[in-house]
Specification:
248 residues, Phosphatase 2c, domain 1, six-stranded antiparallel beta sheet, 7 helices
Length: 248
């Protein structure tokens, strides 16, 4: 199975880009991730970069595609971000990652950076944010579509660089991607301007992973204010060797 992968990391309307992305491919194994740093004085940029660098250093441990290994690597990342904190900069970061092998797919996330899996024109998996607004959805206080731009949407309940609130959510799936399947990892500055219906609609029209991100980025540019957040994404499309078109 050939994977078409594209990366997008944009500063938006901010002075500093605190997002970091990752694509790493080895034979039979693909690792993709996005991290969104939290914290003033440039600390968020350091935190997200630290998370991705530590993830790369621990990559070999992930090849087992086992939940225990994923949790241990997440603990190492959390420790690394904590070690970089100072009294002035209590930096933290979100993280969403996908592992793809010839036999399994794994997702891990902490915070409100998201992971999506699309299969046969539908959402087969969508991570749930660790945020106050997501909690409001779960308790029935607001509808799922109201989570975007909710007044408490930026209040994250879990993040890396936390003493007690860094527990990841992990999803393991047996089997690999099928032709036309797609994975999207994105920070909140990206998904808040692109609905799930629009993710699917742009995917149907996309000629490549890069084209898919380009189409979604047009929506962000159209809707976002001048001071919009950093917005980042990694897109993965599964295609046949002859580059067969996606499902229609």
């Amino acid at each position: 199975m050939q994977l078409d992968i594209a990366n997008h990391c944009d500063i938006g309307g901010r002075e500093v880009n605190e997002d970091t992305t990752l694509i790493k491919q080895t034979e039979g194994f693909t690792l993709a991730a996005v991290a969104d740093g939290l914290g003033g004085h440039g600390g968020g940029k350091i935190a997200s970069a630290c998370a991705i660098q530590t993830l790369l250093e621990q990559e070999d441990r992930l090849h087992t595609m086992e939940e225990e290994a994923l949790r241990e690597v997440c603990e190492r990342i959390n420790d690394a971000v904590l070690a970089g904190q100072t009294a002035q900069v209590r930096m933290k970061t979100t993280l969403a990652l996908a592992l793809i092998s010839d036999a399994a797919i794994a997702f891990l996330h902490v915070g409100d950076s998201r992971a999506y899996l699309f299969h046969e024109g539908k959402i087969a998996y969508q991570s749930q944010d660790h945020s106050v607004s997501q909690l409001a959805v779960l308790t029935g206080a607001i509808r799922p579509e109201q989570i975007r731009f909710h007044e408490d949407r930026n209040k994250v309940l879990r993040s890396l660089g936390s003493e007690n609130n860094a527990t990841p959510d992990i999803r393991l799936m047996q089997g690999t991607l099928h032709p036309g399947d797609a994975i999207l990892l994105c920070t909140d500055g990206f998904w808040e301007y692109v609905t799930e219906k629009e993710m699917l609609a742009t995917l149907r029209r996309a000629k490549s992973a890069e084209d898919w991100i380009r189409r979604m980025k047009l929506l962000i540019n159209w809707r976002a204010k001048k001071d919009n957040d950093n917005n980042s994404a990694v897109a993965v499309l599964a295609q046949r060797p002859e580059k067969a078109s996606l499902w229609r």
